[in-house]
Design brief:
This is Alpha/beta fold hydrolase. It comes from Histidinibacterium lentulum. One of its GO terms (molecular function) is hydrolase activity. Keywords: Hydrolase. It is a single chain. Helices cover about 45% and strands about 20% of the residues. It is α/β, with parallel strands linked by helices. The protein has one domain: Rossmann fold (3-Layer(aba) Sandwich). The protein has an 8-stranded mixed β-sheet with strand order 1-2-4-3-5-6-7-8, with helices on both faces. A hairpin with a 2-residue loop joins strand 1 and strand 2. Helix 1 packs parallel to helix 11, helix 2 crosses helix 3 and helix 5 crosses helix 7. The radius of gyration is 16 Å and the shape is globular. It starts with a strand and ends with a helix. About 45% of the residues are buried.
Length: about 260
């Protein structure tokens, strides 16, 4: 995969298709390949760019310890790629970062798509994040893989799709433990809630109703707080609809982008 330098960091990315750019930002629990099942169809009518965050794939640090720093990182990536205004889609962690881009670099975003994310975590939701952070720091990525899969997918899907789970475990196992822990800490500190009304972009919020990582109420808070946002709820789907329900994901995303 090609790489580009952004503020001292090496950023690995995939670039497919041509036309108006759509940038896809991945979740904490996966690398950019989490979009592989939908990149082809998305790229039939646009240019689709999928970077890895620092610590995933061949992407490296340095990176700051707050979500705002990751938003600045994405803006720097857009500069390095000579991209102007883009449509921006973020899943999970990528959705928190996408909000930071929309808030702090508003002119870089046209349409915004937030998939299984939220404005921030309530105190109860921060407990497992702190647990992941501590465990990966002490024991490495292998120690958090089981928990990560349970946070990504409903138990029935895990049982029904062992090959997908093996694929996702293998991809996440290669993440840098220190940078994974850094991202966990950034999530614990985040609260975009008071700023949601500042997001003026056309926004689609999508959520799987079986999401155990960013429960549906967090997405509903986004849809309520962002003026004019549209909400799509996917029954039976977990944290990554682009993997578990690619057809429903594509239907919602393409209708929004092409509308």
């Amino acid at each position: 995969m090609p790489t580009v330098s952004v503020n001292g960091s090496t950023v690995e990315y995939q670039d497919a298709g041509s036309g108006k750019p759509l940038v896809l930002l991945h979740t904490l629990l996966a690398d950019r390949t989490v979009y592989d099942r939908v990149t082809g169809p998305l790229a039939e009518g646009r240019r689709v760019i999928t970077p890895n965050f620092p610590g995933y794939g061949a992407s490296t640090g340095p990176i700051g310890s707050e979500i705002a720093a990751y938003g600045d990182f994405v803006a720097g990536f857009l500069d390095a790629m000579d991209l102007g205004t883009v449509d921006l889609l973020g899943n999970g962690y990528g959705g928190f970062v996408a909000q930071a881009v929309a808030l702090d670099h508003a002119a870089r975003v046209d349409r915004l798509i937030l998939v299984d994310t939220g404005p921030g975590f309530p105190e109860a939701g921060k407990v497992p994040l702190r647990g992941l952070q501590a465990k990966v720091t002490a024991e490495g990525m292998s120690a958090v893989l089981d928990a990560a899969m349970l946070r990504m997918f409903p138990p029935a899907y895990i049982e029904a799709a062992p090959e997908v789970i093996a694929e996702r475990r293998e991809a996440l196992s290669k993440a840098d433990p220190a940078l994974f822990a850094n991202a966990c800490g950034a999530l614990v500190a985040l609260d975009h809630g008071p700023r949601l009304a500042q997001i003026g972009h056309p926004t689609l919020v999508m959520v799987g109703l079986e999401d155990q990582t960013t429960p549906p109420d967090l997405s509903r808070a986004l849809a309520t707080g962002i003026p004019g946002a549209r909400l799509i709820e996917l029954p039976g789907v977990g944290h990554c609809p682009q993997v578990q329900a690619p057809e429903a994901f594509l239907e919602g995303v393409l209708e929004f982008l092409d509308g």
